Amino acid sequence: MPDVTFTVDGNKLTAPAGTLLIEACKSAGIEIPAFCYYPGLSLQAACRMCVVRIEKMPKLQTACTTPVAEGMVVQTETPEIAQARKATLQLLLGNHPLDCPVCDAGGECELQDMTFKYGAADSFYAEPKNHREEQKWSPVVYFDRPRCILCYRCVRMCGEGMDVFALGIQNRGSSSVIAPNVPAQMSPDDLAHVDCEQCGMCIDACPVGALTSGTYRYKTRPWEMNHVATVCTHCGDGCKTTLGVRSTSDGAEIVRGDNRDKSGINGDFLCNKGRYAFDFANSPDRITQPLVRNSSGVLLPVSWEQALEHVGKKLRELRDTRGGKSIGVVGGNRLTNEEAYLLQKFARTVLQTNNIDHHRTADYVSFAQALAGTTGKAASQRDIEKSPAIFIIGGDPTNQNPLTAWNLRSNVRLNKARIYIANTEEIKLRRNAKAFLHVAPFGYSALADLMSGDDSTLESLVQPGTNKQVALDFRAALRAEEEVVVLIGSELRGGDLKKVIEFGTKLPGRKFALLSDYVNSRGAADMGLLPDMLPGYTPITAGSNLATEYNIATEPGLDMLEIFDAAGKGELSALYVVGANPVARFGVDPAALRNTFVVVQEMFLTETAALADVILPAANLYEKSGSVTNSYGDLQQVNKAGDRAGVRTDFEMIVRIADKMGANMRALVPFGKGLHADMGQTRGAQSGEADRHAVWLTANNLEPRLSPFDPMAILDEINRLVPGYSLLRLQLLSGNDQHLSPAAPSDLVQITNRRDLVLPANDGLFTSGTLGRYSAMLADLQQNAASRTAAAEQTAAD
Amino acid sequence: MSTIANTIFSPEMAARFDKLVTIYPVRRSALVPMLLYAQDDLGYVSDAAVAEIALRIEILELDVRNVLSYYSMLRTKPAGKYNVQVCTNISCMLRGGYEILDHCKHKLGIGHKEVTPDGVFSLEEVECIGACCWAPAMQINYDFHDDLTPEKVDVLFQMYKDGQGKDVK
Fold first, then answer.
1. Which of the residues A84, A265, A609, B126 could staple to B85 if both were Cys, CB 3.0 to 4.6 A apart?
2. Distance of alpha carbon A37 from alpha carbon A62, whole angstroms
3. ipTM score here?
4. In B, which residues are within 8 Å of A165 by CB distance?
């Protein structure tokens, strides 16, 4: 739209026509206070705080609903306006308890700020305030009615933003109240509740302390915490969560998770897991001492030195006597990129084994292979916010990737994006879709055929009894779109996945993304926690840079299942598990590991840890620094927030074990001044092979890292060696996301029949793999959801 | 034939509701009339009625409750057989509306929004009922009684008690 020019407080401003006055002023650094206005949600004009004087208009106007116009002359701060705002505040405070000293929002409250600014704490009202007791709407959402100023932000957030519509307004005038969707008389305990996704967005949007969070309420004050922005450890969307941290006698506990700075890839959004499910970090069940199994089979606490010595000695012995190929390594989906990279490098170069795998929650190998040789075909999470059309095959973003679902809904609401969904289930997102194709069970293969123009399998694609024309129309509508992001659920893999992508890459304007389950599922695959792939999906068999650097065996190792098969046959001498629970996940028979030396780095006594010979207590993602890659390939920095005495990061433990094994540490982690100082000279006293890393560091103006425990040292190596991981340091260090699309060079891709080991975790809103079990809040929410369902069935039966 | 299976309303009312949702440009415009008819049919708007209306209009029960709670003339608890609504707005107040209200309270032994133990009468203090010219006035169900005095109220109550009052719907 053309720009218009107008005057605010004597400053000449310019903004596109149609911009709201409040937004135009904000861009120019002029603050207009508002309670009910929330960017991205519908306009309400309920609070009257944003009133301004516009010349030639009668009465004061609300800046939140007035679009700027050519020649408009506005005053935003005059005695008249101050008086109007003060009067508004006096009305808002009519029933407000002014209990700021005990209120959670105290110090972060918009009403408090405005009351201080306009001095409206004195009231003309002599009537007693209308007090109501607080209500517990769910384990995480509490409502204090007297503090509510009826701005409707929560109602709009829940309805428009979340598409849940669990909150409404009831009664009228001064007795109006925000009401949840399960009224007291319909509830088994005669108390009102919310039946919703428990995302807590209403709490975030609330400008006052009327809605408070079950995990944080009355625990501390905002200024008593340190606030650390890091990446949520749960699903693969990679939301930034700001953790409020407080010192305790044995470290630092996490008190709050929220999204107040809104600077992350997730913008306004955070789901219940990012907001509440940090509590596993504070769990009393955590292992905080290294445990070693003694000769009578009992796990006993020992010192770190003893434990590491034992592990190092034993692994070295087994490697030297039974060979590296008898050792298996299992990595995790919540490790940082640096840890995952270091783990596979440690396995391949120090343990001398390619038997390394992780729980694959989506088929990133096929994804990368299908995209090999293309550029700009991998979609970022940012594309979901903006793309005019999105095609979703499989998956259930609402439950499994909440940020993706939020971005899809916002894109539909704000940009009129068109969503096309093909799914075997009637997923909730279809309510926002332009077209929904209900695929018959196991019909994704047929869908891939349909998309590539092969109609022969149409019969097995559509639900029995439905008209096949629906599918053809669906395809026609999709083909007519010029720009489409294809979002693929983790149930598509192998040949089907490749078919969908390969056809799409031939069309212009198509981008792809594959959804996965955990924070660094993508990173684990990118970093080569795979028996047959080096980092960046470089086939181990090909003569790549990486293989040359590592100087390792080129035959693929055993995959996850083969490792445990080998254990069953007594061929596995040692198993090293870092942040994973394969025993529960793959139903491994505990007896299989009887004769294997098992080392587990874990936070809790999981099924796998229970079988270990040595358990090393590990820090979680909230207690370490590094980087993670979300399922779209957006890399972000992880910052250390919490701390627990006695635990160590997986990075440190791997380095220390390697050291105890007598490995060449500088070859494993490039630190210090490098191996050689000759910068590639071929003659003279210092001739020899160039230290490629030192050369690269110099070329990139980077200093050598000083410590082998600095994950940045490994990040440098990732940057140098992993195809597609060419990072922008400033972007990383300033806490921004950057989109990477690692795909092995197409000449290295070999079409082989890989064994399909992808096992989507299908974690929903209230589960998160093994870790989820140790979150008390997730357990509460599961129970809450179950009781809601039971109540609903009861009512239906009545 | 009702479009809703197992309707809680009479076949006539169900048929009326079926039509009601079709005559407005948007479906939810039928909400307020439907609530009023449901209240007349059942005596109040029950939870079951809320559920069925939400289903008919294709909105959430929460939306129905939002509207239902807004209007003071919509009830969520049963009223008496005869709902006595006494106006105390300006004209009636000036002409003794509060006297009439107090008399009703005394006579029936109940207060605002209460029901007599036998369930025959319920009492409500209401805003203007549009009978200012003949204040003070009250409305019993849909029947108007104006130019009242406490004596006239006694006669009226006796009449309704004897079952001779009009029961307009």
1. B126
2. 10
3. 0.86
4. 60, 62-63
pLDDT at position A688, please?
54
User: What are A's interface residues with B at a Cβ cutoff of 8 A?
Assistant: 165-172, 179, 181, 183, 185-186
If phi over 0 gives left and psi between -120 and 50 gives alpha, with beta otherwise, what is residue B50?
alpha
Phi then psi dihedrals of residue A389, to 5 deg: -145, 140
How many domains does the structure of chain A reveal?
5
Position with higher pLDDT, A38 vs B163: A38
Residue for token pair 């509490």 = A142
In a domain, A791, yes or no: no
* A752's tokens: 């082989």
Is the four-CA dihedral A122, A128, A130, A131 of positive or negative sign?
A: positive
Tell me the binding residues of B: 87, 92, 128, 132
- Distance, CA of A194 to CA of A563 (rounded, Å): 47
Distance CA A625, CA A715 (A): 11
Global pTM reads 0.93
Check if B152 contacts A (Cβ < 8 Å): no
* A504 lies in the same domain as A528: no
Interface test with A, best of B28, B32, B69 (most A CBs within 10 A): B69
- What is the arithmetic mean of pLDDT over A465-471? 85
Q: Give the Cα-Cα-Cα angle A75, A81, A85 (nearest 5 degrees).
A: 135
**Range(s) of the domain holding residue A259:** 110-119+131-282
Q: Which residue in the block uniquely carries the two structure tokens 């505990």? A: A590
CB of B69 within 8 Å of any CB in chain A?
yes
Tell me the Ramachandran region of residue A569: left when phi exceeds 0, alpha when psi lies from -120 to 50, beta otherwise: alpha
In a domain, A288, yes or no: no
C-alpha span between A393 and A569 (Å, rounded): 40
A625-664 pLDDT per residue, tens: 999 999 999 999 999 999 999 999 999 999 999 999 999 9
Question: From CA A348, how far away is CA A58, in angstroms rounded?
Answer: 77
Confidence of residue A546 (pLDDT cuts 50, 70, 90): confident
Structure tokens at A725: 């991981």
CATH architecture of B82-161: 3-Layer(aba) Sandwich (3.40)
Residue of B nearest to A184 (CA): B47
